[in-house]
Amino acid sequence: MSLRTDETLHAKNSRELRAQANVYRSFNYVGSKETLAYLFNDFSNSFHIDGFKERFIWDVVKIDFGIAAIVNIFTGAWDVINDTVIATLVDNTRTRLGKFRPYLIGFQVPLTLIGLLYWFIPYFFPKTSATFVPKLIFYFAFNILTETASTFTTVAKSGYMSTITPNPNERIRLITLAELLTGWMGEDLPQYIMGFLYDMVTTGKLQVPLRSIFAGMGTSTAIISCAFTLWFFVISRERVPQSIERPSVKEGLRAIFTNYPVLLMCLSDFLSGFGVKSDERNYWIDVHGGKSMINTILALVSGISGPVGSVSYAFVSPIRKRFSSRAIWAGSDMYGDMVLLGFFLFGLHNKNYLKLKPMLVAYGLREFLNKLLFGVNKVINTDLWNEAMDYCEWKHGYRMEATTGVARGLVLKLQSIAMGTVRTLIMKKIGYVQGIKIGTQDDSTKFWLFALCTIVPLITSALGIIPKFLWPINKKTREKMYYELSERRQKRVEDYLNSVDGGDNADTEPVTAE
Predict the structure, then answer these.
(1) What is the pLDDT of residues 405-442, one digit of tens each?
(2) Of 13, 62, 128, 324, which one has the greatest count of Cβ atoms within 10 A?
(3) CB–CB of 487/20 below 8 Å?
């Protein structure tokens, strides 16, 4: 260890104090190029046609509902097993690239290429029945394979996003900027285009096989999304230092119960997870789809209310200053429930849910009201999980993003297996007939399709709001937490540098952006 003069030591301490203050207040770590890549990564997360996967399986691939429920049970069970193993592996990774980046960079392209096969299942098994055994075997094996491979990137990405900056204010800025701008960049454009093409084909106005539409849209969006995501992972960095010691699985599981914010989020997710619902697209397609270009109209209605959603991001800063995270988290939940309840009651009145024009007006009003808090919901829901990860580091001295995230999802996935099976079987119970002409389900089935995207999920998931009233991190605790974390992280970096080269770096500037 080299000797320091009092003047040098004083200067060093002053730099440290400034760095500690900057971590929470003003210092930005993420440069303009990385910020741009962050925006395109966020854009890529929604640049897909996954909202039409149910229609793809029902109308094009044609997998029997009962068999799909069985496949869901087995793939879900495997998901629970491999998640635990993979999360432990990720959390114990220490490389020059970081903890998460080796998986995010190495798996992105291979996983995308494998995933493209999904959209070609109808070509592998053309004009086969919903119970054709070779098709069912392929479908089952494909789900197992992709579930295992995607776990590496899913687990790594969930932890990575909380480590690109130690400054919570900058994290809020990035989240807000991404959510605000990516909508204008056209992240939902594939869904709108797919809806338009789906309508054109099912109404006979476009003489192209539906499987070709899905294959073209599915593969093109996947490749574009992969390119933007990979770019971000390559040029971005992990800036929150990990503990040198590798935490055990036992510590990760224990963190769920000792990390009170994570426990509350898990409990809220678990109680909400009992919600029984069907994708709202099924209601619009099967009740109104045979009458007009419904998906195009819905896209236009959503587009009109879009600017309101953009403006809503201006509310984020004043609302966060005025209200606690607890009030925002619980209040936004209740607000959304009341808007959805009003939509259901309007549809129930005089059987409006069977009438296209009144429901489009109601849908437009619902979208406008929801967009008023759109920005707040997007930012707060993302940042609360990051805040919970910082809380774990503050309380226990280590970060367990991967294992904690998987442990959070463990019970939810077991629950999801059961609820996914229930939802699939409910489609049979309400009399839904696969493969018949769009818009020709009977009236009872049409009502339940409407109820399953409105009042049924509202009632069955209502208990999820209770834990939100118990969030423990108030403004004072948050200030203290981030100030103490900045001190610890700076010391950890200095200790590491001293251990590497015997203290030659002792007089260097504290590590900040790089």
Answers:
(1) 666 666 666 677 677 777 777 888 888 887 677 778 88
(2) 62
(3) yes
Looking at every residue in the chain, the average pLDDT score rounds to: 79
Strand partners, 95: 98
HSE of 487 in the Cβ direction (CA atoms, 13 Å)?
9
Beta carbons of 78 and 400 less than 8 angstroms apart: no
For residues 157 and 512, give the distance between their C-alpha atoms in angstroms, rounded to a whole number. Answer: 23
Residue 124: the pLDDT is 93
**Does position 341 have pLDDT exceeding 80, yes or no?**
yes
Dump pLDDT digits (tens) for 105-139: 988 888 888 889 999 999 999 988 888 889 988 98
Find out whether 187 and 46 touch, Cβ atoms under 8 Å.
yes
Question: Cβ-count burial of 117 within 10 angstroms (0-12 exposed, 13-18 middle, 19+ buried)?
Answer: middle
pLDDT over 60 at 292, yes or no: no
d(CA 278, CA 205): 28
Q: What does the alpha-carbon distance between residue 231 and residue 332 come to, in Å, rounded to a whole number?
A: 34
Q: What is the pLDDT of residues 159-188, one digit of tens each?
A: 787 788 888 778 777 877 777 777 666 677
Dist CA 53 CA 420 (whole Å): 14
Q: Which residue has the tokens 């879900």?
A: 76
- Tokens 């226990």 belong to 396
Pair of tokens at residue 354: 């069977």
The two most distant CA atoms of the chain are separated, in Å, by 86
- Nearest of 464, 488, 375, 44 to residue 224 by alpha carbon: 44
Query: E strand or H helix at 257, and its extent?
Result: helix 249-258
Question: How many whole angstroms from its chain centre is CA 219?
Answer: 21
Q: What gap in Å lies between CA 72 and CA 79, rounded to an integer?
A: 10
Backbone angles phi, psi at 430, to 5 degrees: -85, 5
DSSP notation for 332-356: HHHHHHHHHHHHHHHHHGGGGGG-H
Cβ proximity of 399 and 393 under 8 Å: yes
> Based on C-alpha coordinates, what's the Rg of the chain?
25
pLDDT in tens, 70-85: 777 777 777 777 777 7
Q: What is the mean pLDDT of residues 399-403?
A: 70
Q: Note the pLDDT of residue 306.
A: 63
Question: Phi first, then psi: what are they for 207, rounded to 5°?
Answer: -90, 65
Q: How far is CA 415 from CA 1, 279, 409, in A?
A: 55, 18, 9
- Is residue 98 classed as helix, strand or coil in its secondary structure? strand
Q: Which residues contact 44 (CB under 8 A, 6 or more apart)?
A: 187, 224, 225, 226, 227, 228, 229
* Residue 511: per-residue pLDDT: 40
Distance CA 71, CA 179 (A): 35
3-state secondary structure of 211: helix
